[in-house]
Each structure stands twice: as structure tokens, then as C-alpha cells.
Amino acid sequence: MKKIKVEKERVRLLNDRPVLEKGKYVLYWMQQSQRVNYNHALEYAALKANELELPLLVVFGLMDNYPEANLRHYHFMLEGLKDTADQLSNRNISFILKKGFPPDIAKEFAADAAIVFCDMGYLRHQRIWRKQVSDGVSCRVVQVESDAVVPVEIASSKAEYAARTIRRKIWLHANLFIVPLDKVKLNHSSLDLKFKNTLSLNDIEALLGSLKLDTSVGKVDSFFKGGPTEAKKRLEYFIAKKLDLYVENRNHPYKDDISYMSMYLHFGQISPVEILLEIQKHQKENVDSYVEELLIRRELSINFVYYTSDYDCFSFLPEWAKNTLEKHKADERPHRYSLKQLEMSKTHDPYWNAAMDEMKYTGFMHNYMRMYWGKKILEWSDTPDKAYKNLVYLNNKYFLDGRDPVSYANIGWIFGLHDRPWGERPIYGTVRTMVASGLERKTNPKAYIEKVNILKEKALKKED
């Protein structure tokens, strides 16, 4: 039989409870890694299920009030879960969706499990949830990390200062983890297991209507469809049509020579390992640039939130950044905008307004414009602290890939995180600035405005 490789460094025992002989199944409590392909937690659980001669059951807890999530996020996620459930069924694995607080759902199904497996999350509430489950069940709980290439604690034991300080550490281990992961063939099916009060994914609109959600932010299905199948299609299209242009065009927001993988990575609908294996089959220059973003920059962000308890608060900033922003806190600000004005794209800057519109209407913003968008909020807010709060609010409300290690690190970068001091200027102090003339010099922001207007028109037509 072919050996299925799940690296031992990905596996962590969360409690010291036994594997229960009376268990009816092996349980995989899925939350972060919402996929079948390249899901190390799933395959490790499948190996254990075969060893114990038990079926494997996958359970997902669906709550109304997931932190800062709204209709936009739920719709994208449920599209993905429907795709994942279908793929699991093809492997004779039952996927159970049940309404409730995720740790409570996990504990409910753990009552009849021999052993519980879970994937790994990096944010505060995700880590708290896994502890609640491991402390609250009578069987063994095993966590398997699958959403970082190099497990976060293997890459580094501390919060890293910048990309240059983590790059060597990641590459020291990366090739051990950028390896194919085969699927385990299950010896026993769980499709005949029956449970009460579960939810159906056959009618996503009806399911959304049954939840108490924030509906102030609409779906973006005109632009992005959720799910592992869609993620793979987008990756294949990027490699075939866009990868050759990546280095040349990645900083031109009026073009579309980017992968759009961030939202699929956010919901765990595609594995970074799978992306790397596919991308590395191709020519070098553009691959190296893309790998730098996916591997080094993304995993620097994971390192940041994992080792920084206040990752979503102004307090975490490097001392030099806090000091220089405090020094310039009282500087005259030629333009000041309230959160409402920002949210309505009502500023004097047409480039910024276009970026805000792209975010509102599509759930995405080109990364080059994200930097400019954030820097201007810092410049136009009464205080740096208020600017930070406004950025977190807008980021988490509108972006499909918000509420995420990468987006929290991106916000921090606006204020000096993972950067260095630059020449001193009003308002910013020695924190890096971005100006409209720089956009005009380096790219074509007027063409970007035209692009966003087309996207906005498409979204408004859909609403009608």
C-alpha cells in the first residue's frame, strides 16, 4: 500500500486523553481548512480511521454571528462548503453541517468519537475554540496544521521583524513541506450514518435566509464564486494566461495579471502547498516573484498574528512607528474624512474613491491600491489610532479576504509594521508615505478608474 505522507511537524496533540475503544467513528472537526485536496488534517484523520477500522465523519459548526462576518462572507463560504461536501461524498465521507457555536458542535459529535482531529487556525478566537474543544471532550484531540506551508512554530519561535528576517528560516524548511499529498482510500463509509437537526447545502439561498446575518453588505457572486473547484480553475487560468506577465504587471491595478487566490486561501478552499507545486512547474522569474508573496510574505503574516496577541490593535506597532506617529499626531491635516465619508467614497481623491468602490462592489482590491488606500486613511484621519480602527473596520466589513492574518499584517504595514523608518514628513513622521503623483508616475490610475467604473456598473445591474 502506498504510504501517505503527513509531516510529523504538522501534528500536535492538544490533550492527553485516550483513543476511545467505544467510539463509533473518527471525527474531523473542519473549520479552517475547508477543502478536500491537500488537506493534511483530513488525510491524517483518514489514516487513523483505517487503522481503527472506523468510518470518518467530517463536521462543520455554522454560527450566525461569526466574528465580523456578514452575508458577503457567508455566501462565499457556503458555496465552498457545498463543493467540499460533494467531494467528500465521492470519497464515502459524510459531511455534517450543523448550526451552533463551533466548539459546542465539535464537542457534541466528539461524544461518540474514538478520536477527534482538527485543523489549525491562527487568530485569537480560532485558538481559543480549539482549546475549548480539547479541554471539553473525553477522547484525544489532535491538531494538524494545513494552511501554512512551513508550520508556524517550525519556521520561527518568535514574531519576526520583517521579510528579510524570516526568509532564510522559511527556506531552511520549505522544501521538506512542498511535497505532494496523496489521498487515503477509506475502508469504511460514513455515508449511512444519520444525525438529527443537520443543515442542507442543497439550497444555499434558503440556508442564508434561515440565518441571522448582517445583510448590509451584499454578495459578490457576479465577480467571485466560492469553492475549491473554482479556486483550482482560477489557478489554472492564472498559470496558463497570466503568470508570464506577473512580474511586469503585478503593480498595475488597471490590469488583471494576478491570481486572485487570497480569498480562497482565506477560507482554506485551496492549499498553499498545492499552489506552490503547480506554480513551480513553470519558468523561473515570475515564479520566484509569486513565491515570495505566497510563501514568504504570507507566512510572515501568519507569524505576526500567531506571536502577537493584540494583532488587531494599534498597540502592537513597533516602538519607532508609534513614537514618530505620536510626534506628528498634532500636524495639520489638509483633508479630514469621517468613517461615513470614507465608506461612501466621498473624498477629493478620485484614485482613492475608485479603490474604495472596487472593495465595496467586488469584495476585492488590487494589492497596489490597497497600500495607497490605507496610507491615505492614515493621512486623512484625526489621529493615527482612529485611522487604524477605521482601516480594520472597512477591511473586515468589505473584503472577502479580510479578518485574516495577511490583511491584519497589511494594515499594520500601513503604520510601519515589517518596514523601516524613511525620511521624515508631516503626519507620517518616518513611516513610509504614498502619494497620488507616485501612482501617476508608476502606473495608470486613470485606467484603473475606468476599470472600476465598469465593475461598479456590473454590480449595480446585478442588484437591479
Question: What this model shows, in words?
Answer:
The chain has 464 residues and is of the alpha/beta class. It has three domains: 1-147, Rossmann fold, CATH 3.40.50; 148-180 and 228-307, Serine Threonine Protein Phosphatase 5, Tetratricopeptide repeat; 314-463, DNA Cyclobutane Dipyrimidine Photolyase, subunit A, domain 3 (Orthogonal Bundle). It is built from 20 helices and six strands. It has a six-stranded mixed beta sheet with strand order 1-6-5-2-3-4, with helices on both faces. Strand 2 (25-29), helix 1 and strand 3 (56-62) form a beta-alpha-beta unit. Helix 3 (102-110) runs parallel beside helix 4 (124-136), helix 16 (367-380) runs antiparallel to helix 17 and helix 17 runs antiparallel to helix 18. The protein is globular. It starts with 10 loop residues before the first strand and ends with a helix. The mean pLDDT is 96. InterPro entries: Crypto/Photolyase_FAD-like_sf, Crypto/Photolyase_N_sf, DNA_photolyase_N, Photolyase_Class-2, Rossmann-like_a/b/a_fold. GO terms for molecular function: deoxyribodipyrimidine photo-lyase activity; DNA binding. Residues 24-152 form the Photolyase/cryptochrome alpha/beta domain.
